[in-house]
Amino acid sequence: MSSIQQTNSQTVSSATTSLTAKKAAENPQDRFLKLLVTQMKNQDPLKPLDNAEVTSQLAQISTVTGIDKLNNTLQILNSDVEDSLSVEATNMIGHNAFVSGNIVELKEGSAKVGFELEQPVDQLTVTIKDSAGLVVREIDLKAYPEGISSISWDGKTNSGSIASEGTYTFEVTAEQGGDNIKVTPLALGSVKSVSTGDDGTLLDMGKLGLINLSNVKQVF
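Request: output the structure for the sequence above.
Response:
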């Protein structure tokens, strides 16, 4: 292909691209009105356009345009909210937080176990297990109110000895008047860093892994 032909081809391609972009950017309502005016100019005088039909079409295109604008506004708002959450999450770095989970870390003879109750209970039991699933300690508690609470474990086993430092799991059961009540176990971890992605704002909480910001129950 000669340089002249190549230049002409590039010019035509550029013009086509520009025209396509212009058409895509053109307001759909403007395009509809242009088509409607053209149609009215060329209508059959013996079969004029029905006024009710024209009014209905105008109402439909206005509705579509309004929905498009609303969707654009919502996208902007969602983006602003995500940015705000990310900034807010960075303030959590270095702080401890309770998140949904059943891992508890025994360190220097101390550990903290959290749980969330949907209603007050008159009996609550925390069962701590080792990596093999064997019961290390069972702690029977009395009444607890609705909401988020926590207890401390001093590292003592059911036999009275001191458990080795490390990672354990725990279960929480609750009753009210003899009926089982739903309870959510909460794991305690420290926020190491914050990142954002398709899944939203994520917190790196060490052994607890990457935790979505929405799963954080309490920060302190």
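Confidence is low (pLDDT under 50) at residues 2-25.
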